[in-house]
Design brief:
The complex is a heterodimer of chains A (about 80) and B (about 525).
Chain A: H1 6-15, H2 36-50, H3 67-81
Chain B: H1 7-15, E1 20-23, E2 28-30, H2 31-47, E3 56-59, H3 64-75, E4 80-82, H4 89-99, E5 103-106, H5 111-120, E6 125-127, E7 167-173, E8 181-186, H6 187-200, E9 208-211, H7 219-230, E10 233-236, H8 248-254, E11 259-262, H9 264-272, E12 286-289, H10 296-305, E13 310-315, E14 325-328, E15 344-345, E16 349-354, E17 367-373, E18 379-380, H11 384-390, E19 391-392, E20 401-410, E21 416-421, E22 425-428, E23 431-434, H12 435-443, E24 450-459, E25 463-471, H13 478-485, E26 497-500, H14 514-526
Parallel strand pairs in B: 3-4, 3-5, 5-6, 9-10, 11-12, 12-13, 25-26
Antiparallel strand pairs in B: 1-2, 7-8, 8-18, 13-14, 14-15, 16-17, 17-20, 19-20, 20-21, 22-23, 24-25
Helix pairs in contact in B: 1-2, 2-3, 4-5, 6-7
The chains are: A mainly alpha (about 80), B alpha/beta (about 525).
């Protein structure tokens, strides 16, 4: 099973979604960069990257604030997806 | 004379004082509480010298406090101007310079708005309805929650000295030259429409209605004022649910919503994230959308998942007040490629599909779509030229009709079908965007020499993608340009695709060859 590195998430955020990510701890919600649109596009990009369909239920805002937390949350989803 | 926008709340505050008017993320408030709080704010506005037809700008997150401020403005006869808290200060400044509010009511977190207000309107009073210690503004607030008068000590408010055809609010939308346009809406415009809604959809005081649209977007005026017309309960959708729409389905069920109304994007997300099968909505009776085309495959998926729910497409630009036509989908469409009609006019409205010379088109012939009737705005805020250009009185003798810029055709059964745009306005995730506004902003960046913005249709989930082609002296990182652009335009206007070129392609007339650019961006999608 594949795992996602923080660098891979930052790469998707910067190159697929054109967000400006300064570091892995940057609060993307506070800077207004992460909204439902970005979230869904991020989800699709990660699905494409990993070849797995994800069910991101029960993720809340705090799970998605920074690239590091996004990577952790998506890795847990990948684990569930098996 | 018909009623003014705040009067329904007053009626219910007397008849059913304990009925819940708004259940937002944090609390439930009754009609009586909403009436009392809006009286307090109205008294505060009067104390600060607000007069009939002054503007009150409101930049408060969606919830009962913002709604109380809107009602208060109406109670003193002052049109309110809702501002997008997420908009950059530069854009808010343009809006405030245009509408020159006497008062700006801002949330403690709306520092952008406050900074813009200080620059744009040095004479405006900028205050908050929250406590003073929560604010970290560049100026001291002119008033805070502590200044709200004691409800028991307020003298009864006189009816404002306005008529129902005076302004209720001014809604600013994207402008093609880079300056947002203010659409003026009267009390009568809104009342005519919401009375149709309440009757047509058979609203009752038991209804639990979603409030998904942001307050600066005109769909929210249907959410709020149609709810109040019926004495029902409004449930503003919490901001957190807009980050991860997966949890939205649970919230719709928990709140026992009887109606969901939004732009199609939220519906696409709901369906795409697949939580509908396990999350039935037993209370849901109606699902309505407006603002852009709902892809037919999404509609089919939703109708499959939600049997027993009525699905209705509403259509209409802000200039004609919320919506002007409706189409109830009679059954699950067989063909995923079929167009869903925008339908037939709401009461008091007329849809006209005309040729350039003003003659009606034949059935099935594409023409320009015009709207006539009770929803038509008096025009754009202090802009007679733009008003005269689209609110036409010259095309059909004795009639005032609004040129939507949409193309359409009329089917043999009378249903009107949308057929695209005649200009470069697009809808992206429910937002109405003039590509010219983005281009004007991009051209001002130091790093960019020349630029052109085009839109392409990518897939049924994301709809139109905004594409920026540009030239620059050195290789530029799109994310850096996006950051600079975000200082000038809202995030929903930021391009989704970027392409740096040595020079922009031109056509035989020497103008930017936009079709060629669209082809370039489309070929990038396929590669």
């Amino acid at each position: 099973m594949s795992t996602l590195t923080v660098d891979a998430i930052i790469d998707v955020l910067e190159n697929n979604l054109f967000l400006l990510v300064e570091d892995a701890d940057q609060d993307l919600v506070e800077s207004g960069q992460l909204d439902s649109l970005v979230f869904v596009e991020l989800l699709l990009a990660v699905e494409q990257l990993t070849g797995q369909q994800l069910a991101p239920k029960d993720l809340d805002l705090d799970d998605l604030r920074t690239p590091e937390r996004i990577a952790k949350a998506f890795n847990e989803l990948l684990l569930q997806a098996g | 004379m018909t009623r003014l926008l705040f009067e329904d709340v007053e009626r219910w505050a007397i008849d059913r004082p304990d009925a819940i008017a708004v259940h937002d993320e944090h609390e439930s408030v009754t009609y009586q509480q909403l009436s009392v709080r809006s009286n307090q704010i109205a008294a505060l506005l009067l104390k600060h010298g607000v007069q009939t037809n002054d503007r009150v700008a409101i930049c408060v997150p969606k919830g009962w406090h913002a709604i109380a401020a809107m009602l208060a403005s109406a109670k003193v006869g002052a049109p309110y101007v809702p501002l997008d808290p997420d908009s950059p200060a530069a854009r808010i400044q343009l809006i405030l310079e245009a509408c020159q509010p006497a008062v700006v009511i801002a949330h403690p977190s709306a520092v952008n708005t406050v900074s813009a207000a200080v620059t744009a309107n040095p004479d405006a009073l900028v205050g908050t309805l929250a406590s003073a210690q929560d604010t970290t503004w560049p100026v001291d607030p002119a008033f805070t929650e502590a200044d709200l008068p004691d409800p028991d000590g307020i003298a009864p408010l006189a009816m404002p000295d306005i008529e129902s055809d005076d302004l209720a609010h001014v809604l600013f939308t994207s402008g093609s030259t880079g300056v947002p346009k203010g659409v003026q809406i009267t009390h009568q415009n809104v009342i005519s429409y919401i009375d149709w809604v309440v009757e047509h959809f058979d609203y009752t005081s038991d209804d639990q209605l979603s409030g998904h649209s942001p307050l600066h977007f005109d769909l929210s005026t249907m959410d709020i004022f149609a709810t109040f017309a019926a004495g029902a309960t409004l449930h503003p959708v919490p901001a957190g649910l807009n980050i991860n729409p997966v949890n939205l389905a649970d919230w719709i069920r928990e709140r026992n919503l009887t109606q969901w109304f939004s732009v199609p994007t939220a519906l696409n997300h709901l369906l795409r994230l697949g939580s509908l099968a396990e999350s039935e909505f037993p209370a849901l009776r109606r699902l309505l959308w407006c603002g852009e085309v709902l892809p037919t495959p999404t509609l089919i998926g939703l109708m499959d998942a939600l049997p027993g729910v009525e699905f209705t497409n509403l259509y209409g630009p802000t200039e004609a007040t919320i919506a002007s036509s409706w189409y109830q989908v009679p059954e699950i469409p067989n063909d995923p490629a079929a167009s869903i009609p925008i339908g037939v006019p709401c009461a008091g409205e007329e849809l006209l599909v005309l040729r350039k010379d003003g003659h009606p088109t034949d059935d099935d012939e594409i023409g320009d779509l015009y709207i006539e009737g009770v929803g038509l705005s008096p025009g754009y805020w202090q802009d007679e030229e733009k008003t005269a250009a689209v609110f036409r009185t010259d095309l059909l003798p004795g009639r005032r009709i609004y040129y939507t810029g949409d193309l359409a055709w009329r089917r043999g059964d009378g249903q009107v079908v949308f057929a695209g745009r005649a200009d470069s306005q697009i809808k992206s995730r429910g937002h109405r965007i003039e590509l010219g506004e983005i281009e004007a902003a991009l051209e001002t960046l130091d790093a960019v020499d020349t630029s052109a913005i085009v839109a392409i249709d990518v897939d049924h989930l994301t709809g139109s993608a905004i594409c920026a082609a540009f030239t620059a002296d050195s290789p530029m990182k799109p994310a850096l340009l996006a950051k600079e652009l975000a200082e000038l335009v809202p995030r929903y206007m930021l391009p989704h695709r970027w392409l740096q070129l040595d020079e922009l392609p031109t056509n035989v007339n020497g103008k930017v060859d936009r079709p060629a650019l669209r082809t370039s961006f489309l070929s990038m999608e396929k590669s």
